[in-house]
Amino acid sequence: MYITDEDNPRLPFLRDKTSKLTTSPGCYIMKDKMKKIIYIGKAKNLRNRVTSYFRKCQDHLPKVWKMVSHVYDYDFIVTDSEFEALVLECSLIKQYTPKYNILLKDDKGYSYIRVTNEDYPRLQAVLQKYDDGAEYIGPYTSSFAVKQAVIEANKVFMLPTCTRKFPQDFRKQRPCLNMHIKQCMGVCTGKFSKDEYNSIVRQAVDYIRNGSSDSVERLTDEMNKAAEELDFELAAKLRDRIQAIQKAAESQKIINDDIRDTDIIAIAQNGEMACASVIMYRGGRLFDKASYFLGEKDDSIKMREDFLMQYYSSKDSIPKDILLDEDITNGEIIEKFLRQKYDHAVNISTPKRGQFLRLTTLAKSNATEYLSIKVGRTSREITALEELAKALGLPKTPKYIECYDISNLASTNMVAGMVVFENGRPCKKYYKKFSIKTVAEQNDYACMQEVIERRFRNYFEKTDEGFSIMPDLILLDGGNGHVNAVEPVLERMGVTCPLFGLVKDSKHRTRAVATGGGEISLAKCRAAFNLVTAIQDEVHRVAITYQAQKHKKNAHRLEITKVKGIGDKKAAKLITEYKTKEALKKATVEELAKTAGVNIDTARELKEIIDEM
Asked: The pTM is what?
């Protein structure tokens, strides 16, 4: 978004003041008309950084645009180094809590693990402790950690999670799918005694309390004892349970002795909103999780750097390792600040593979889920848009996507369809259909050029609300040829919207995204691939449906022109007036005569032809 003098009449004054600003490092303090501090930032070069806010034709993110539109004046503090500017910025933000800086509020609460009081107990994650005779483990500060621990224990020990009551429901129904895919031991079959089942539950509780390595040691002792007593059936069951725990330990994220004290941080974005999640490991166990709604999104790198500074500036302690989902620019400076503040080594890194990458993916999923609640979108939709933006190298997450497709029968009934996806969902009120007007013979490239030019001519002339929004991304159902044909049209009209094509395989399924000079595969971005496929299928449906309707109307018009005195123009009048075959058949002779402008005899003959259609 471009800031103008109309948006902020103080811009000429601010530009003049900034032209005299020092090039030294320091902090700048933006104030509104009431002299209230609304934003604090740091800079390696104060003049260059502050100038970027007030420069003419500077394209800002919506959050920055709002801030700049309210700036009445600013102060600045010069420092000796960029590091000192970072420390000062952190202190000032903590002191003044400006409106447009990241201000953190999390979602704390207490949770328990409940072992139900029944013959065949269950493990459950609960938020309150009741006087119901059940065993409660906790409290824990993180409901997330509790839920994950219960899910993991139920999975490793194959405990039932269904609603059946035991032993009342033994052998009353067939075992559910969970038993067949080895997610449940199948208690409903009646093959497990109460004592045997309770022993397994105690092992699961021990696993939650002490971790996988201690559980394996205890079970190994029990297995060896059973073997010595020649109870080979029990020994085999214990062996299988040990193997299940060891297998789970390879991929589970709850208890991991290789991860000592570590924080994992990820940020999710949807349109103009952002959310951060921090997953905390202490002593090799998932200890806690916190999620923070960051409000309107900012530059990706800056958001992560600002979050690190704000989050750790108020903590009493900090782990040695911090993992991020994306790289940042000032990692070394932030590490230096945190080392001095907490008096021990701090390492900030971005894992690219292995178990640590899986942890950043887990943090990202949590941030996405938290954000989805705030913005009313599913986590799958948010993930799809983020993956698509990253894969295509877009400057921001595409909130408003338009896609176009051409459909024709040889050189007849040439049409195009336009669909709109907003925040990952179809927005049908903005769908458009085009009849090709300037292309006489079949030429998909020329047809696409006409459609795109008509669409943006309407945007600039403001003649239709459906064309009033500038899309964040344009997709064309076609390959590099379509992109290369349309790019000059957009350049000539001054439209800078990202443009890509959608390439199909021999079976008419989405294969890749065309750039105009090559292709980008979305095979590794499953959510983005599914979204693009849905968009391509939808635009194809709209275009081909409209083409079929046009073809049907033309067939009716050809029938009508068989009547002497009815030419193409009069046939077109009738089709336009009555639109459907059913409406034509309901029209009286007099109505047909009046609409087509013919005498009553011609209208009677016309009525006979219509009734036979």
From this structure: 0.50
